[in-house]
Design brief:
50% of the residues lie in helices and 11% in strands. With 619 residues, the protein is an alpha+beta fold. The strands form four sheets. It has a six-stranded mixed β-sheet, with helices on both faces. The protein has a five-stranded antiparallel β-sheet with strand order 1-2-3-4-5, sandwiched between helices. Strand 15, helix 13 and strand 16 form a beta-alpha-beta unit. Helix 20 packs parallel to helix 22 and helix 25 packs antiparallel against helix 26. The two termini are 57 Å apart. Bound molecules: zinc ion (ZN).
Length: 619
């Protein structure tokens, strides 16, 4: 094992990496004022963004849950990698060669990094095999579904040979151990050793949101294959099927731009959609669409998901209906409008593209109906609406769906829709919906109501002080803004001015704790100094420091921000001078004018006036 990474390299990689790029790969970020970006926090569940990123400071902070740190702590918290792995990953990204304390330059062969490497090597191997003669059956399979060599290459589709150890030997010769291949889910353990998990199958590499291969989906091709039609990578440390969406790496940019995502059922459906121009299509991998998928998608779509839409394509068969109902239960967590699109004659996007071309796939998405309507129709479809009993039964089955609508404005509308579908009186339907709403015994929040922010774990909520908890006095406001200015633009401010302005104590203990930490910073030109400074804020006030580093410092440009931070510091200096002057004027009343002390006070008063003039001139 190589030793520690040299600190200079750690700093250099951090300085050369834009934290907004790294976070932006996982969370949709929007510009929020000068030097600041905002998105939905990936560390807690929220519907309006309180997750701030400041690229210049290399810092992020969530005003909701209090998570904060630099790009390394983000990767550690988000991707569960070690510190060393986080540095190695970012170094690899910018092509920077790291040096280790023991002199070695070999990257540390730690668990997760090796799993990514093994998956990437396997993807490469499978892709190469697709041109072999044995893979003829795979090429025909793809061709029959309308995918030529170019399409296969775009999605990295490959072929896993029938032999029991083709991939195994190829990756062994590249230096991967059986243990690594087994942890990556690429081989299975048999009585006589390990063997390839995927054999005689068409293989789709499954990538995470950043484009790294984390696993595979493999379809059976041979009749004598006893296995299931689709076989996936088992759960590994990097492959969690509940969170994986096939195609997300290709779709994420357009999902976040168009605020739309199309959820289809299989790998070939994702391919068909993308080739037909629906570049926002993704699919779950060997599992139903669930709440973890929603969390992943919400992060990519950003907070504007009220304007966004999620279109599910389901087979109108029984399994598809069940999937829709399940998705409906979960989709209530979306702010987005959810829709269901079903193809003509129940054709899925892949078959539809084959039968009727790209235009038909694009049209499919436009035939969407609101998911509520789709679910209502499912609920009432089993009843004979010609009979009174049938209508009453259908009403009982459908009313809870309307009662549970998150958006209270939609409820009266769907009461009318349901009444029309059932041919019943609107008032009767309304009463049943109200009854269903109460019957659940669940207290419903008002539409759009947010749960309050959760306090950071381990912090007594009574103790936690954030910007919002500070007193709303001009005095505290000045101190707060000046500290924010130094934390965010300190590298461009005059150190002597900072020292002078932050010398006198602040009255509020939280602001004073931040003042002490900011004043104690050795070198404010060094990148990352502010993060270290807030780390040294004494508890329980560290959160306040983090909020001040992340918060919006109102200004139209960097230069304007620097200028106004300077003004704030001068006002602090002026305030201290004024206070001392007031004290002196009080004191001079109490001492004889011709005494030693009186003379001293008068000299000091003249000095104070001179200093006030200098400060005023600087402004
Ligand atoms: Zn948070």
């Amino acid at each position: 094992m190589a030793g520690r990474i040299r600190q200079a390299d750690v700093d250099e990689v951090k300085a050369r990496t834009n934290i907004a790029d790294i976070i932006g790969e996982r969370v949709a970020l929007k510009s929020a004022g000068v030097g600041s970006m905002k998105g939905l926090c990936p560390f807690h569940d929220e519907r309006s963004p309180s997750f701030n990123v400041r690229p210049q400071a290399g810092f992020y902070h969530c005003f909701g849950c209090g998570e904060s740190g630099d790009v390394y702590s983000f990767l550690r918290a988000m991707d569960h990698v070690s510190f060393t792995e986080a540095v190695e990953r970012l170094a690899a990204r910018i092509g920077y060669t790291l040096h280790y304390e023991d002199g070695g330059a070999a990257p540390e062969h730690s668990g997760r990094a090796r799993l990514y490497a093994a998956n990437a090597a396997a993807a490469e191997f499978f892709r190469g095999q697709l041109t072999s003669s044995e893979a003829d059956i795979a090429r025909r399979f793809l061709g029959q579904r309308g995918f030529d060599a170019g399409a296969a290459a775009h999605f990295g589709v490959g072929y896993a040979p029938k032999g029991w150890s083709s991939m195994h030997s190829a990756l062994r010769s590249q230096g991967f151990s059986d243990e690594e291949l087994s942890s990556a889910g690429l081989v299975s353990q048999g009585q006589r050793g390990v063997y390839d998990r995927f054999r005689g199958r068409a293989v789709w590499p499954i990538r995470d949101v950043t484009g790294q291969v984390i696993g595979f989906g493999a379809r059976k091709l041979f009749d004598d294959d006893q296995g299931p039609k689709y076989l996936n990578t088992p759960e590994t440390t990097i492959y969690k099927k509940a969170q994986v969406l096939y195609g997300l790496d290709l779709a994420k940019r357009d999902i976040s731009r168009e605020h739309r995502v199309v959820v289809v059922e299989g790998y070939t459906d994702v391919m068909a959609c993308h080739l037909a121009g629906i570049t926002t299509a993704v699919a779950t991998c060997g599992t139903a669409f669930g709440s973890d998928h929603i969390t992943v998608l919400r992060r990519v779509m950003g907070d504007d998901s009220t304007a966004g839409e999620v279109v599910f394509t389901f087979d109108p068969d029984a399994a598809g209906q069940k999937a829709a109902l399940r998705a409906f239960a979960d989709a209530k967590r979306f702010n987005a409008q959810t829709y269901v699109a079903t193809g003509p004659e129940g054709l899925d996007p892949c078959d539809l593209r084959l039968a009727r071309g790209d235009g038909a796939v694009r049209a499919l998405v436009e035939t969407k109906v609101p998911m509520v309507e789709f679910v209502l129709d499912q609920r009432i479809s089993g009843f004979d609406l010609a009979s009174v009993e049938g209508r009453v039964g259908a009403l009982r089955a459908a009313a809870p769906v309307v009662a549970e609508l998150r958006d209270r404005l939609l409820q009266p509308e769907y009461v009318r829709v349901l009444a029309r579908r059932l041919g019943m009186d609107t008032e009767d339907v309304r009463r049943e919906v109200d009854r269903a709403g109460r019957g659940g015994g669940v207290t419903r929040r008002e539409a759009g109501a947010e749960p309050g922010p959760k306090p950071a774990p381990g912090v007594d909520p009574g103790m936690r002080v954030g910007i919002a908890e500070l007193p709303r006095t001009p005095e505290a406001g000045l101190e707060r803004d000046a500290l924010m200015g130094v934390l965010q633009f300190g590298h461009r401010l005059d150190p002597a001015l900072i020292e002078r302005a932050l010398e006198p104590p602040f009255r509020h203990p939280a602001l004073d704790a931040v003042r002490i930490a900011v004043r104690g910073a050795a070198d404010r030109k060094r990148p990352g100094w502010a993060i270290d400074a807030i780390d040294s804020v004494r508890e329980p006030y560290r959160t306040l420091g983090a909020e001040m580093l992340a918060g919006d410092f109102p200004a139209l440009s960097d230069d304007a921000a620097v200028a106004s931070a300077g003004d704030l510091l001068r006002r602090l200096v002026m305030r201290a001078l004024d206070r001392e002057k007031a004290e002196m004027l009080g004191a001079i009343q109490r001492v004889p004018a011709d005494s030693e002390e009186g003379r001293g006070i008068r000299i000091r008063l003249r000095e104070l006036d001179a200093q006030r003039r200098t400060i005023a001139d600087e402004a």
